[in-house]
Amino acid sequence: MNRILVVEDEQRIAQFVRKGLRAHGFQPTVVDDGTAALQHALTGGYELMVLDLGLPGIDGFEVLSRLRDAGSAMPVIILSAKDSITDRVAGLQGGADDYMSKPFGFEELLARIRLRLREPAGRAGGGVAEPVLERRGLRLDAQARRVTVDGREVELSAREFALAEVFLRHPGQVLSREQLLSMVWGYDFDPGSNVVEVYVRYLRRKVGAERVETVRGAGYRLV
Ligand code: CA
Questions:
Q1: Would you say domain 132-222 falls under CATH 1.10.10.10?
Q2: pLDDT tens per residue, range 165-201
Q3: Which of 46, 83, 166, 199 lies in the 20 to 30 Å Cα band around 177?
């Protein structure tokens, strides 16, 4: 079982990430300030850290820099509301392995965590998913972030990719708008928003309309 250190001072997000990770077989520990984050991280008892930047005490950038100075190579995924290019670059140059901005969808965070846990030795542990998902010629390589339809490569945006991945992980299953909203867009979206409909339309245009079926009154299904 993979032990994940989640550093997040916003309760709502911390709970959301903890719950999701537990549901997928991980063992998350949540801390809510930079000093505790560093103490936990330096024990070496975690396989990965999800790190917020805006933290009480020492901030996420400082946690990361002290961690790397101490020689730790633990994978770090920054999860931050700061989404400027400057912050991204600073995070990645500071030794983060990945950077996700809030609001985020849990499925995307999960995909990135799994990806980082597979590197560099390709070690497979609990909760690690198959990197390639396929259904009737629709093929998604989560590691390479590539999607092909009958061997032809299609360009998907990050959201379209996440949506395709959710469908491929639940083939034949009807997924409601609310489920898709929480899996792809996360906790932060207005349930009245039509963003799901819009993105299903985009996805159909790219992978073939017949692949994603509308189940009236219930949701959508990957055929
Ligand atoms: Ca924060």
A1: yes
A2: 989 988 889 999 888 887 787 655 666 778 899 999 9
A3: 83
